[in-house]
Amino acid sequence: xxxxxxxxxPTPDALKxxxxxxxxxxxxxxxxxxxxxxxxxxxGRVTTLMKALGQLDPETRKARGAELNQVKDEVAAALEARRxxxxxxxxxxxxxxEQIDITLPPRPETTGRLHPISQTIDELTAIFAEMGxxxxxxxxxxxxxxxxxxxxxxxxHPARQMHDTFYLxxxxxxxxxxxRTHTSPVQVRTMLSQAPPIRIIAPGRxxxxxxxxxxxxxxxxxxxxxxxxxxxxxxxxxxxxxLCRAFFDVDDxxxxxxxxxxxxxxxxxxxxxxxxxxxxxxKLGNYGDWLEILGCGMVHPKVLEMCGVDPTRYQGFAFGxxxxxxxxxxxxxxxxxxxxxxxxxxxxxxxxxxxxxxxMAQGLTW
Length: 366
Ligand code: PHE
Prior knowledge:
The protein has 366 residues and is of the alpha+beta class. It has 2 domains: 12-98; 116-350, 2-Layer Sandwich (BirA Bifunctional Protein, domain 2). 38% of the residues lie in helices and 21% in strands. The protein has helices at 12-25, 29-40, 45-51, 58-97, 116-130, 144-147, 185-193, 233-248, 301-306, 323-331, 344-350, and strands spanning 134-135, 141-143, 167-168, 177-179, 198-207, 218-228, 255-262, 265-278, 281-284, 289-299, 315-322. Strands 1, 5, 6, 7, 8, 9, 10 and 11 form an 8-stranded mixed β-sheet that branches. Strands 2-4-3 form a 3-stranded antiparallel β-sheet. A hairpin with an 8-residue loop joins β3 (167-168) and β4 (177-179). The longest helix has 40 residues, at 58-97. It binds phenylalanine. Phenylalanine binds next to β10 and β11.
């Protein structure tokens, strides 16, 4: 037999050279992994040679073992180095392939539109953000306590009847559940969960069992709540006058506060804005006629107390308004029911371009 190594049994040195060449020419991470398994895997060539050491006499084993260990270390180091290079290359290729030019204008074929309700909520949020309000939320399914009792409407209170409430089966603990009839329960949740000063708005869905030209069983409201040690009715007036003029974009829009009643505010008021009716049209401005758009008042001391806020130290105001109503007024949408018919032609007509976010600096609508 010749002592020349056969291709199957190269000298450790030749094997090392061969493996390192293979590592260098592995074109991607998968190919590199194949080389690793073929060399250092359980049945890999280096592993097999190491397993065979046991059959050698002690002297040869020692020398050969040291040699093989070195081969193994060098091959492992070469694999590691090559892996780094290939990973960098893969990342660079991916970055190049997934590159997008963010300076390109949106494609003309984006025809999706924002619903006027979403747009109106975005506009209100922009206006109130400027005044330092943050957005708060609450659940659509409410406990009777949050929707009524904590708002100074105990069971049997006559004001409850005006809410046309949808009642749900009792909660597991036996308490009454309802679909919230207004966003005012978010006042309760906010006061119970955070200490004053509080300055929030809470836009969201509300429900009442009513359906005609001007009522849908689901509609939207936005609630506002401010609680601190100094806020008074003057602040309430200033804030809401500013809101009306900013939202309707009429600088001299007349705003009137008319005495009213809500169980959870004292004193309470309804707010009217100036308008003119005629010829099937409604125009906003200083024309002598009035249109009611929201309810408000100073938070009732009993409500503060029920929500864990000390009424001898804190006070504040709250307001609530229907979002559909102000959207209809601002955008000339004649029929409330069309908001929820999901008619694409209607959405294309009354909808808004999604990327034009309302802001007080750049304008509410484009
Ligand atoms: N929750 C009242 C309603 O739905 C509106 C309101 C909110 C009035 C806050 C006063 C204060 O009619």
